[in-house]
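Forwarding these from the shared drive since the link keeps breaking.
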Amino acid sequence: MQEVRIDLRLPNEERNKEIKRSSELCFKINNTMPTTPECKKLIDELFNNTLGENTVINPPIYTILANKIKIGKNVVIMNGFQCMSAGGLTIEDNTMISLNCVIATNNHDMYDRAVITCKPVHIKKNVWIGVNVTILPGVTIGENAVVGAGAVVTKDVPDNAAVVGNPAKVIKYLDAEKFKNKEL
């Protein structure tokens, strides 16, 4: 996976415009009654009307580059979702993300901190992410995986794996056959 480096000292009008748009929409979303059509409309606008069918996002939500986030259908994201998305984030269908999860697709260069280093995060289909999980840049979470509460995911998670801890480690594998033909 190729790392992208962004020097924050260099002007980038397009990036600045998206930061402003995303920040303002997050503020509006987070200060609107959460179950109203107005709030849903703002969430759709934040993600440029690209959310998959039956996807639900519960405020508050925080991101400054929403145009770098792609979310599939039947996804549920609970309150307190935070995403540093400069590297890009893909969340596939039927994923559940619990309260207060953080996904970071970017970090700062250790020696030149005005440079951010970016790697995409990919969450595959039918993943369940527990409360207070942190997922770091460059990670892929495999299909049907479970990430236990409080985990810090620093490396890829295999399909059908359950991981816990800091750093997250595989504690068991789920029976992939039990996921076949399930309506989620």
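-- next protein --
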Amino acid sequence: MPYSALTVPTTCPGVPQKILDPKNTWADGNGYDQTARDLAARFRNNFGKYAANVEPEILKAQPREGG
């Protein structure tokens, strides 16, 4: 996933490969990208309140800017 460390399976028996990429489930790919960027930014902004008290490996798992 471009904006997070989240991993998504690329194959799953009985599931069409196309739907394993969440962007493919949106009618508007640009809308998906904008929403993903917005969600990642909101998470980072909110999480910033707690970052000083979090282990470094947890900080590495937060959403990335720009994808």
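The two ends are 8 Å apart (CA to CA). The mean pLDDT is 87.

- D.
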